[in-house]
Amino acid sequence: MIIDGRSLPWEAQESIRMRAADLFEKNIPVGRIIREAGMSRSAVFAWKRAWKKGGRQALLTRPIPGRPPTLDDSRLAELASLVSGHTQGLGKVARRHDW
């Protein structure tokens, strides 16, 4: 079964890529790696290209670009509790203002 890796936590994604790197280093056929990782053919071939170019370092998770969050975890939790249950009609507002 093929997994959409984007739905996995970044730690799990990185762990799968490091396992693939172990197998690349042992010259295991890519078809077997695809089956073992449960990831798409294109993803595994992309990992192999990156690994050939930059080694295991190239398969590490990179920081997400962009502005760092301005709210800490407690403020985010407070915000989430304030808006939970109050999102009904938000689509109407967005359409009215062309968002």
Describe the structure.
There is one protein chain. Helix 1 crosses helix 3 (41-54). This protein has 5 helices and no strands. The chain has helices spanning 10-25, 30-37, 41-54, 73-83, 90-96. The mean pLDDT is 82. By secondary structure, it is mainly alpha-helical.
Keywords:
single chain; 99 residues; mainly alpha; 57% helix
Please tally the helical runs, counting DSSP H or I stretches of 4 or more residues: 5
Number of strands: 0
Give the overall shape, derived from the CA principal axes: elongated
- Which sequence of SSEs, written as H and E, runs from N to C? HHHHH
Helix coverage percent of residues?
55-70%
- Estimated share of beta-strand residues: under 5%
Task: Kindly provide the radius of gyration, computed on alpha-carbon positions and rounded to a whole number of angstroms.
Answer: 20 Å
